[in-house]
């Protein structure tokens, strides 16, 4: 069983966590709305020369002028649903970041996951700010320093907002490990600003 070991108020540089950015009811309503209404895709990736579908579903939403190369894994680009456009505007006002794209992940249960990575594509700029909203099942989120390999984990609650900015992508990897016993789904929204 995975346990959190980090105090969410004392995360590494560039990570900040707000537990209740959205109310429990709003988070649940939004979860069901998005689960039903987004056009979910399961793109393929190549790992060691073999094609695999990714272990989760995705939807990529962006402004029309965004450079679509970013959705590299051949995701179809969708327009903003009103409810997500409203959320984008609130986050843009709060964080002073012109968010123009949103990657949505649906983890159907604890078998779905995301491996270690940094969101450090050149299109995101040098010190990107990413706002990550969680809806539905709680999941463990791991952070690992690229040089010391020191790891921390926190539990991302439904309705929470994790902001990654500054040197977080340069210095750390993050991942969402499998939690084999978990039966419930989770949706994660990562708002991004693509140059
Ligand atoms: O699901 C999460 O909390 C992480 C998502 C993530 O790291 C990403 O979309 O780049
Ligand atoms: Fe990420």
UniProtKB/TrEMBL annotation:
Family matches, as Pfam families: 2OG-FeII_Oxy_2 (PF13532)
Keyword Cell wall biogenesis/degradation: no
GO molecular function (one): dioxygenase activity
Cross-referenced InterPro entries: AlkB-like, AlkB-like_sf, ALKBH2, Oxoglu/Fe-dep_dioxygenase_dom
Annotated keywords: Dioxygenase, Oxidoreductase
Residue span(s) of domain Fe2OG dioxygenase: 98-195
Name of this protein: Alkylated DNA repair dioxygenase AlkB
Annotated organism of origin: Pseudoalteromonas lipolytica
């Amino acid at each position: 069983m995975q346990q959190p070991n980090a105090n969410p108020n004392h995360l590494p540089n560039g990570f900040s966590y707000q537990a209740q950015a959205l109310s429990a009811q709003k988070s649940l309503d939004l979860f069901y709305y998005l689960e039903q209404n987004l056009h979910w895709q399961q793109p393929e990736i190549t790992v060691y020369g073999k094609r695999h579908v990714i272990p989760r579903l995705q939807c990529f939403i962006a402004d029309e002028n965004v450079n679509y190369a970013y959705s590299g894994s051949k995701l179809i680009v969708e327009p903003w649903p009103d409810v997500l456009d409203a959320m984008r505007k609130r986050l843009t006002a709060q964080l002073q970041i012109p968010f123009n794209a949103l990657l949505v992940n649906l983890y159907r249960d604890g078998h779905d996951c995301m491996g270690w990575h940094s969101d450090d594509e050149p299109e995101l700029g040098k010190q990107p700010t990413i706002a990550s909203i969680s809806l539905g099942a709680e999941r463990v989120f791991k952070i690992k320093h690229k040089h010391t390999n020191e790891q921390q984990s926190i539990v991302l609650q439904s309705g929470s907002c994790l902001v990654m900015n500054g040197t977080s992508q340069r210095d750390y990897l993050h991942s969402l490990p499998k939690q084999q016993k978990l039966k419930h789904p989770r949706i994660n929204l990562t708002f991004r600003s693509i140059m």
